[in-house]
Amino acid sequence: MKLAFSTLGCPDWSVERVVSTASSLGYDGVEVRGFSGRVDIDQMPEFNEGLARTRALFHDAGLEICCISTSVSLSGRDREARRAQVDQARRAIDVAAALGAPFVRVFGGRIPPDVSRPDAADDIAQVLTALGGTAASVGVTVVLETHDDFCRGKDAADIIDRVSGPGVGILWDILHPYRCGEALTDTLNYLGGHIRHVHVKDGVNLSPTGFKPVLLGEGEMPWQEAVRLLGQIGYTGYLSLEWEKRWHPEIPDPEIAFPQYMERMREFLHAS
Q1: I need a surface site. Which of 32, 177, 200, 207 has the fewest CB within 10 A?
Q2: pLDDT of the residue at 218
Q3: How remote is the C-alpha of 40 from its chain's centroid?
Q4: What is the pLDDT of residues 157-206, one digit of tens each?
């Protein structure tokens, strides 16, 4: 398995600093969730007029952009709002293809109050089927994260099982199904064959309504067991640290979190 960190953990860093840090710490790749205070791909010069330079910076450092993580949410029923979300996802697919990034992350989102869960799953699956076809044609996979109203593997799998066509998989954020009461083994039983990318994080005060982020190994998340289970199903992709500094500015800085994650994960992987 390979190691990455999400730029969610260093929201104000430039692409140059991200590349330099990832390279110096020995990471295999970087998950992009914004640079220099921006998260919208359309507003980031690094993915517009500076795209070729961004690609060269990562390539020359021997780093992969392992995922483009968007804010796209697919559960809304307003046609104009949904069209805007789909357009953003398609733009991200184009950027991922240009950069050689294999995945684009999207969310199921929150189920509207007047919509049943099965109907919401149908709606999202239809959009994912269309996006997956576009993505597959350029060598990219759209990954649905276990998040929002689809935190549990059971609910995320219900969407994926309704998708018809290629180019769609799962991003397993190991903390969210667990904090919502789903056992790790159950999550893997639901999602195992669909997992393409993995977010690793730790936390305390875990509950269906939230958690407090802490450094890896200092919380309540049995992350070692999650990694062991991934090994048992033959997963060889990325274990990407999602350090939520952008949303929780009070937590330790990336200068602490990024090397600490690398040290703890290397120790565990080498001992396994």
Answers
A1: 207
A2: 98
A3: 15
A4: 999 999 999 999 999 999 999 999 999 999 999 998 999 999 999 999 99
Q: Is the pLDDT of residue 272 over 80?
A: no
Q: Give 172's strand partners.
A: 198
* Measured CA angle at 129 (ends 124, 133), to 5 deg: 145
DSSP code per residue over 195-209: EEEEEE-EEEEEETT
Q: Dump pLDDT digits (tens) for 66-100.
A: 999 999 999 887 888 889 999 999 999 999 999 99
**Residue (of 61, 63, 69) closest to 39 by Cα position:** 69
CA of residue 179 relative to chain centroid, distance: 17
**CB contact at 8 A, 193 and 235:** no
Element (H, E) at 66: strand 64-73
- For residue 270, give the 3-state DSSP assignment: helix
* pLDDT tens digits along 212-243: 999 999 999 999 999 999 999 999 999 999 99
- Dist CA 233 CA 242 (whole Å): 22
Residue pair 198/171 in contact (Cβ under 8 Å)? The answer is: yes
Task: Determine the CATH number of domain 2-271.
Answer: 3.20.20.150
Q: What is the DSSP letter of 38?
A: B
Question: From CA 179, how far away is CA 136, in angstroms rounded?
Answer: 32
| Contact in structure between 136 and 230 (CB atoms under 8 Å) | no
Terminal-residue alpha carbon distance, the chain: 12
Q: Which residue has the tokens 């953003």?
A: 88
| 256, 143, 118, 166: CA torsion to nearest 10 | -170
